Amino acid sequence: MNLFYAIGKYVMLMRRVFTRPQKRKIFRQQLFTEFQSLGIDSLGIVVFISIFMGAVVAIQTAYNIDSPLIPLSMVGFTVRQSVILEFSPTVISLILAGKVGSRIASEIGTMRVTEQIDAFEIMGVNSANYLIFPKMVAALLINPILIIISMWMGILGGWLAMVLTGLVTTHDYVSGLRVDFEGYTIFYALAKTVVFAYIISTVSGFFGYETEGGALEVGQASTKAVVYSSILIILFNLVLTQILLT
Amino acid sequence: MIEAKNLNKYFGDRHVLIDVSHHFEKGQTNLVIGQSGSGKTVFMKALVGLIEVDTGEILYDERDFTRMNFEQRKTIRQEIGMLFQGSALFDSMNVEQNVMFPLNMFTNKTFEEKLERVNFVLKRVNLEDVNKLMTPELSGGMRKRVAIARAIAMNPKYLFCDEPNSGLDPQTSGVIDILIKEITQEYQITTIVNTHDMNSVLSIGDNVAFIFKGKLWWTGSKDEILQTDNRELNDFVFGTELTSRLKK
After folding, report:
1. Residue A86 and residue A92: Cα distance in Å, rounded?
2. What is the least distance, in Å, from the CA of A114 to any CA of chain B?
3. Other beta carbons less than 10 A from residue A186's beta carbon
4. ipTM score here?
5. Whole domain around residue A212: which residue ranges?
6. Mutate which of B76, B85, B90, B108 to test chain A, going by most A C-beta atoms within 10 A?
7. Does some domain include residue A16?
8. How many domains does chain B contain in total?
9. pLDDT in tens, A142-197
């Protein structure tokens, strides 16, 4: 698909997505369903990856501290900064782009090729709004919570690794976590998360909605959704870092 | 009544609907027949607004559908029921939720009132005690009947059926045909059926429109089909050994 044509179609689709839901009660029900499928169902993988990510950062940092002039509390500091600034918001969003993005694209794509979206349209339902808007709102609300959980789990993973290997004491690790802490870093991480959640839900929704053909095309739409969401997350990570940290 | 006036549709250089004009009568089963690729699906999709025509008018009881925007079309769309080729039941919902969906979206009835309507239309299509079944648990014929129940849940004035018999055995096809015919007469609906099933044509075709290479080639009733000497229509309808014997 030509890039400018695709952007044009995306913008036109978003114009249909950003309208008032036809029935608030139905929208609320959909929202809770999406909290479950986009958020709670992703909790396991988020916790698992975050713990191991934090542990790896802690071990690598601890083994690379050669100089006796660098305090061991630096491990806690490094884990905190790495996890809060990059690993949780960016890496976990990339993981969610794979898990949630492919799910959204394949679900909507299958509905497209089995004429379920046409059925909505015939009834007079704004299918773009009905299918994509609740997913987007749910992602915008639930992803920051997942990322906050990921931050805690990352830090916990780092601590567990240090305690189990005996490389750094709990006291050193915790004091490192407290060094020069700035609340703004949490805002920075959550701001990025919200933008990434928007990208994941709408880009995946777009590729699903524009699917034409059959099962093969649904698979291709799903792959495209993950690839383009990931590319956009990486690009916007750079842009947002430049804007928010300078 | 639905009227199509001088409809033209191009896909790139391909002229797929060529100046098609026709009207579909209320309370009758109007059939659109034609070979694969003749333009009959494009014609039906144009009538319901899933495809926009390049020129021409579509009138629903003299209301010009082609000039309406999405919001204005909502009123007419709530008067339309459609049975899709693959039934298009919503996978994430059970039978009851599927049939109740348009009632949830467009009425302010209580749950009990909606449930009563759901049970009524399910009974009308000869389905009972299936409310809680999920769509993968249904047979092809049951899916079609649930789709018909959903299509008539809002008391539509217009019913569109795209290949209602595709994928069904001849006996079940007959049941679906009779159901469509009965519902059309009972509720005085303007029904348009897109088909290439000759059994349907000869059993329920009150009015038949034959589309050939994008043009409306022939119109008449099921009885007139047997008498016509239109060569293209005869080639299409009586192309098999069985149907050619019927003609003789």
Report:
1. 9
2. 6
3. 16
4. 0.87
5. 23-244
6. B90
7. no
8. 2
9. 999 999 999 999 999 999 999 999 999 999 999 999 999 999 999 999 999 999 99
